[in-house]
Design goal:
It is a single chain. The protein is of the alpha/beta class. Among the domains are: 78 residues, no CATH class; 109 residues, no CATH class. It is built from 18 helices and 11 strands. It has a 9-stranded mixed beta sheet. Strands 10-11 form a two-stranded antiparallel sheet. It starts with a helix and ends with a helix.
Length: 458
């Protein structure tokens, strides 16, 4: 970056931070609508080509309604959460990652003919203090870890390509919380997040999150106490709620990560459950469709077509412009419609496991490149990722986005053609074995998905 570019970058970032500061301060007592309009204007002026004008107009329409659901949500977000965390995280995620970094990533994607991810999912360790049913990480074993130096190098190389966001998975990532905080300190222009069981969140760690400002977490829960503890172990539900209470008392924003199955899908989207989360201070929820990863995966947890259709509609109802709840929700599987299909293989994100293998997805445990042997750029150039880039979207119906779950004939061929290997160190599973468990599900979901897609895209 030239001196002129550095000055321009600093000026843009400062302008973004100034408006955010004003919003956060005035939002404590005033309506934030006018300030939100100013922020939208600045973003559109700086990066007009990144999003369409329609996207900015939609944001303005929401900001113009001070009595609307999302205006109330914004007020709650501002008044109940620490302003330094909000400013730092939003600047890094939205400005550095979503706008400036996006332009760099697009340029490098064209230059190298690769996918450059907006977000890296990375496992600091495969170790965990729990063993939850259906957890993708449980299949890796508990003996692998990335060193601080390895993670630092990957993040440095990733930023040069345009990536400014990192989500720590595991294992239980907070077993490495000291190294995570060190990474947050060193990479001040990155947004960091973690999926955690919440049992290691204490007063000391809350103070560290407040200090660095560019890191917060999502706590994994699967419903009320009986359902949650049946999958995660006795006592976890109360520990998760205690962690939420502690963070909320310190005004630290947090979300939840929810794996939905044929058994809990209605509970985890019920008014009662969502009201509980909101009362604890939760501001968003990630919903993940159960995936039958691992030799002993329980396929009875896969949803029926009717259950999945319910999830699609219910999540959209929850986060609708009106009605629903003041809680932003993302459905990793059913929101393919809004992301243009599969987001893995570096298209929006990729996964690095605790052994250093760079995988296309947290649920796809195959790779042909390792950060201990190659640069991050070289890992993104691996044949499996190239085939992802060539094949995406894997289906014109984005309610069937995945090359494993909804299109199980595709992944085995990509793995074979690329020469990728299983990264499951405990019990390697072939792509054929994995996808065989998805064939019946895919066949049953296809007619329902086609019907739903035709209703909105005819």
């Amino acid at each position: 970056m030239s001196i002129t570019e550095k000055i321009s970058h600093a000026a843009e970032r400062k302008a973004f931070e100034t408006v955010l500061d004003s919003m956060l301060k005035k939002g404590q007592t005033q309506d934030v609508g006018d300030l939100a309009q100013q922020l939208i204007d600045i973003i559109q002026k700086i990066h007009k080509g990144t999003w369409s004008d329609d996207s900015f107009d939609a944001l303005r329409a929401i900001a113009e309604n001070p009595e609307g659901k999302w205006a109330h949500y914004a007020q709650r977000l501002i008044r109940e959460n620490d302003p330094y965390i909000l400013k730092t995280f939003l600047t890094n995620a939205a400005y550095e990652g979503g706008f400036r970094g996006y332009q760099t990533a697009q340029a490098n994607a064209a230059k190298y003919d690769i996918n450059v991810p907006w977000l890296i999912l990375m496992d600091p360790t495969s170790a965990c203090n729990m063993h939850c049913t259906g957890c993708w990480a449980a299949e890796y074993g508990h003996k692998q870890s990335l060193s601080f130096e390895e993670m630092d190098r990957v993040l440095t190389e990733a930023k040069a390509l345009g990536t400014h966001a990192c989500l720590f998975t595991g294992g239980e990532p907070l077993l490495r919380r000291k190294d995570i905080i060190r990474l947050c300190e060193k990479h001040r222009d990155m947004a960091f997040h973690a999926f955690t069981n919440g049992t290691l969140i204490d007063e000391e760690f809350c103070q560290e999150m407040l200090r660095v400002g560019n890191f917060f977490v999502s706590i994994s829960v699967e419903g009320f106490e009986a359902a949650n503890d049946g999958r995660r172990g006795q006592g976890h539900f109360q520990k998760a709620l205690d962690a939420m209470d502690l963070m909320h008392s310190h005004r630290i924003p947090f979300g939840v990560s929810i794996c939905y199955t044929s058994r809990n899908y209605k509970v985890v989207t019920s008014d009662e459950f969502l009201d509980l989360l909101i009362s604890k201070g939760c501001i968003f929820a990630w919903y993940f469709h159960y995936m039958p990863v691992g030799l002993n995966a329980d396929t009875s947890l896969l949803l029926t077509p009717e259950q999945r259709a319910y999830m699609k509609d219910r999540v959209r109802e929850i986060r609708g412009i009106t009605g629903g709840k003041e809680l932003y929700c993302i459905d990793f599987q059913n929101d393919g419609e809004f992301a243009g299909g599969c987001v893995a293989g570096g298209r929006i994100y990729c996964h690095i496991n605790a052994a250093g293998d760079v995988e296309p997805c947290v649920f796809i445990h195959y790779s042909g490149a390792n950060i201990r042997e190659k640069s991050f750029l070289e890992c993104l150039q691996q044949p499996l990722f190239k085939l992802y880039r060539k094949g995406q979207p894997f289906n014109g119906n984005h309610l069937r986005p995945c090359p494993m779950l909804e299109n199980p004939e595709l992944l085995p061929k990509m793995v074979a053609d690329s020469g990728a290997h299983s990264t499951d160190l405990e019990a390697p599973e072939s792509a054929e074995h994995l996808c065989a468990k998805c064939k019946e599900y895919a066949a049953h979901w296809k007619p329902q998905a086609e019907k739903l897609w035709a209703e909105n895209h005819s």
